[in-house]
Amino acid sequence: MSIGESHRALRDEVADQLRSWILDGTLEPGSRLGEGAISERMGVSRLPVREAFRRLEAEGLVQTAPRRGVRVAVFDQEELATIQEVRLALELIAVRKTAERRDSETMNELERVLLAGSQAAEAGDQSALKRLNGDFHELLAGGTGSRVLVALLRSVRNQAHHLVGGLVTSPEDSWSEHARVIRAVLDADAEMAALLMRRHLHDRHESQRATLTP
Prior knowledge:
Layout: H1 10-23, E1 32-33, H2 35-42, H3 46-58, E2 62-65, E3 69-72, H4 77-101, H5 104-123, H6 126-142, H7 147-163, H8 171-186, H9 190-212
Antiparallel strand pairs: 1-3, 2-3
Helix pairs in contact: 1-3, 2-3, 4-6, 4-7, 4-8, 4-9, 5-6, 5-8, 6-8, 8-9
GO molecular function: DNA binding; DNA-binding transcription factor activity
Keywords: DNA-binding, Transcription, Transcription regulation
Organism: Acrocarpospora macrocephala
């Protein structure tokens, strides 16, 4: 079934698919995005494609230039450094607020993720660890109770992921650091959780910049 045959709002379906293609590298930085080609590929009219372009431009994943049309946002070292700085600030706000707010549903979910992650790490299940690493970030954002912060963090994570060309550390390495943050949050130690999150992101960002530097 094509996207055009689904029941969800077409602009959302198109935006989700384009975002996925950008983040997994199917659409590389600088790739031209023609309304006609995308609408034909997805089986939709041009209107939802145009609306999806606007949404992805607001997220920083595509760029529109006069007479040049729409293209996938191009990698830029200076912009990457700014995005990483913004992300660090937002992640620290989130982890502190979640540890202090102690929403019972979030705490229960973090305990579930911690247990599932330990089991996946022991079994060497990289696919499960990758999924649980994603759950970790979503839970810490959602645990703040702020829909604005959730949306901002999701957007800035996507931009950071795109600007490093999809470079990620091994799920197992990320999980071991995430697990320590979770334990600090469950212990209501907001400052330790923030310290561990800062160290985790700083190390990841330094590694990514070193890899990308010519």
